[in-house]
Amino acid sequence: MRRRVLASAALALALALPANAAEPRVRADEWALYKSRFLDASGRIVDNANGNVSHSEGQGYGLLLAYLAASPTDFEQIWYFTETELLLRDDGLAMWKWDPASTPHVRDPNNATDGDILIAYALAMAGASWKQPDYIAAAARIAKGILDETVVVSGGRTLLLPGVSGFSAGEREDGPVVNPSYWVFEALPVLNLLAPSEKWTRLSQDGVALLSSLQFGPARLPADWVSLKRQPQPAAGFDPEFSYNSIRIPLYLLRAGIDDAALLRRLQAGMTAGTGVPAIVDLPSGRPKTVLDDDGYQIVNHIVACVMDGTKLPAAALRFEPEYYYPSTLQLLGLAFVRENHAECL
């Protein structure tokens, strides 16, 4: 029975692949630069702005970029580290952090659900494109773990818990607590093919509705961490800010084909806080705390302008000169999206 389900998923995934799935959407020179800075010989993606740790999010991004770069060898290298060093939980999910300075390297057994989603999504797409059934089977195990352990219904909404432990109504006084940037919208239909459930569609719909409702402070932005116990509010114990997590939300929406103009324009205006450059925004005051001027952060708003108004991306956004892992990742995901869907903006 399980083989038939996986075969059906593989066929559906193959049919869902974009017409140019075999073509690289991340250029070879860009991928070579990315690898040279962030891919360790062991297969781990190194977060060089965060103590050179690795995490499930980074492994998922690395797998996705290797797929978009049409590089099966690098994909397998990243997957080997992910599978052997992080996928150690009994529920099929990945432990969230691997620290080279720690013994053992993994001390916290909790997962990070966005990392799990990215890993499963990349495995599924690569497995279908490169005809690797083992990747699809691994993706299906992770998708089932996400569905069983982190997709919950609360207050009439289908929600994504950021981790199996520590965020539910039973574990926090202000729970459930969510991170709106953990909804990787483009991946949810693929996860539905791997672990079929009507919950995936509801999760996507309720995620967009939640983003539309999260308008904190003068900038009218979501917080990175949100309590949904009653009316949504910034969660206790976290700075009430729009920060590194949330800056990727417009990119996730656009990559999924969700072009809600009102939502995107509000996010674009709020995150620049009147400066024209993305920033970490203090929500109570609406003021920028730290300007995020790396091209990888700026490209998010450039792509919103591209999709909404047809504005061409500036030359700086097209130059890939990687310095730090996270903005460099966002820049490559953004460039891959524009090349595939909005070549007129290049």
Structure, described:
- The protein is mainly alpha-helical and 346 residues long.
- It has helices spanning 2-16, 28-38, 56-68, 72-86, 113-129, 133-150, 188-194, 199-213, 249-255, 261-272, 295-309, 315-318, 325-341, and strands at 54-55, 97-98, 151-154, 157-160, 177-178, 226-227, 233-234, 241-242, 279-282, 287-291.
- 48% of the residues lie in helices and 8% in strands.
- The strands form 4 sheets. A 3-stranded antiparallel β-sheet has the order 5-6-7, with no helix packed on it. The chain has a 3-stranded antiparallel β-sheet with strand order 8-9-10, covered by helices on one side. A two-stranded antiparallel ribbon has the order 1-2.
- Strand 9 (279-282) and strand 10 (287-291) form a beta hairpin.
- Helix 2 runs antiparallel to helix 13 and helix 5 packs antiparallel against helix 6.
- The chain is globular.
What keyword list fits this structure?
13 helices; three-stranded antiparallel beta sheet; Glycosyltransferase; mainly alpha
Supply Rg: 19 Å
The CATH architecture of the domain at 1-152 and 178-213: Alpha/alpha barrel
Q: Level of helix content?
A: 40-55%
Major sheet, described briefly? 3 strands, antiparallel
The shape is globular
Query: Which CATH top level class of the domain at 1-152 and 178-213 fits?
Result: Mainly Alpha
Report the CATH topology name of the domain at 1-152 and 178-213: Glycosyltransferase
Instruction: Give, in spatial order, the strands making up the sheet with the most strands.
Output: 5-6-7
Q: Number of helix segments?
A: 13
In terms of per-residue confidence, which ranges show pLDDT below 50 for 5 or more consecutive residues?
A: none
